[in-house]
Recover the amino acids of this structure.
């Protein structure tokens, strides 16, 4: 069996400049879920396994969500490769996060999973079923560096980025669960609104989305995938330059530099002016609509004056505004529905489509900004 972890050492101390090749003591196995299809083809080709078998393995992993590859009825060359290369102590493994906790909302439509990764970090994934649609909300980091003051995840700080395979594995877990609930239901929508800032982990996120949207695998359409960002300006511009086909949702929350800075510390790095400019460039390059997320917080950003300023700020951008009544967290209160509807009216009168996001899963703390912290509280109790 060949390991990918070959290393080279230049011998200088003995006066002999040479090269030792061998298997590194610090050899790191790789997740098959981390690999794109073309990388999988290369890996198998290096082991003498042809393209046809790579397709079979890709389907097993991504379409069938298989975690026990040894049990699959593969043809002999692939079966042999799997036997030699996949498993504990071998070159490759599968990301199969352990389900530490699962909580269902009282209406049964939302399920929140606390998943433990290989290094013990825990993240949350939420499966939401409403309006006949099944949507998975995934995490992209353990913790988050952005520190939004109304967000439970933000108060925990940053731990680490997730690998592509750890993002893919959340979607596959949701699909497995959905299959047990109703095999006829399909997971067609995905939002990157769980723990972490997706555009702070750009490469891993793009790699994962490539696998997730592949028609030979999970096949979630790229236009059904929403990337939510708090405003990482360079990555928004990169999304545009690379013509990524996903939907962009920008969390705004403030109509002036001061209003926004009080809620979103990241705006000290990328100001509101820079963010709006990046959004204009994004729209001009891609021709795509941007979804702006506005968490309504009582007394902070829900006044008619703020709504009027927002209309002026976004003028000329093809924008849809999603209003989100704040989920109860961190001492901030959500806007009363009457105030929220007044706010909405001003935006609509200003020419912007504007809807309220449905508050799903609040009773299981699966709403945005409530992930994981609630588990800590429950553990303490
Ligand atoms: S709202 Fe999003 S970006 Fe802000 S701290 Fe929470 S997880 Fe991070």
């Amino acid at each position: 069996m060949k390991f990918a972890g070959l290393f080279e050492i230049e011998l200088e101390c003995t006066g002999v400049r040479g090269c030792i090749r061998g298997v590194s003591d610090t050899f790191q196995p790789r997740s098959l879920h981390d690999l794109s299809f073309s990388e999988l083809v290369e890996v198998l080709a290096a082991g003498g396994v042809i393209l046809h078998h790579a397709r079979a393995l890709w389907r097993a992993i991504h379409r069938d969500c298989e975690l026990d590859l040894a049990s699959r009825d593969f043809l002999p060359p692939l079966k042999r490769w799997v036997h030699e290369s996949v498993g504990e102590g071998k070159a490759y493994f599968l990301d199969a996060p352990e389900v530490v906790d699962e909580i269902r909302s009282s209406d049964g439509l939302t399920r929140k999973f606390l998943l433990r990764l290989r290094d013990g970090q825990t993240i949350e994934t939420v499966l939401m079923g409403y309006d006949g649609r099944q949507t998975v909300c995934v995490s992209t980091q353990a913790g988050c560096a952005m520190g939004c003051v109304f967000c439970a995840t933000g108060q925990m700080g940053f731990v680490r980025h997730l690998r592509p395979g750890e993002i893919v594995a959340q979607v596959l877990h949701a699909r497995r669960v959905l299959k047990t609930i109703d095999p006829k239901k399909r997971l067609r929508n995905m939002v990157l609104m769980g723990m972490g800032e997706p555009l702070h982990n750009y490469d891993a996120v793009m790699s994962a989305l490539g696998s997730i949207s592949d028609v030979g695998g999970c096949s979630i359409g790229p236009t059904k995938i929403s990337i939510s960002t708090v405003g990482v300006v360079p990555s928004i511009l990169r999304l545009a330059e690379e013509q990524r086909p996903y939907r962009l949702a920008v969390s705004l929350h403030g109509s002036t530099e001061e209003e926004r800075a009080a809620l979103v510390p990241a705006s000290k790095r990328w100001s509101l002016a820079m963010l709006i400019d990046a959004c204009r460039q994004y729209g001009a390059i891609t021709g795509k609509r941007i979804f702006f997320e506005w968490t309504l917080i009582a007394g902070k950003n829900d006044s008619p004056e703020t709504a009027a300023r927002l209309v002026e700020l976004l003028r000329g951008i093809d924008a849809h505004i999603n209003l989100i009544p704040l989920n109860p967290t961190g001492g901030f209160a959500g806007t009363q529905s009457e105030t929220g509807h007044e706010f909405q009216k001003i935006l609509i009168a200003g020419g912007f489509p504007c809807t309220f996001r449905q508050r799903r899963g609040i009773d299981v703390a699966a709403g945005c900004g409530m992930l994981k912290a609630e588990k800590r509280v429950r553990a303490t109790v």
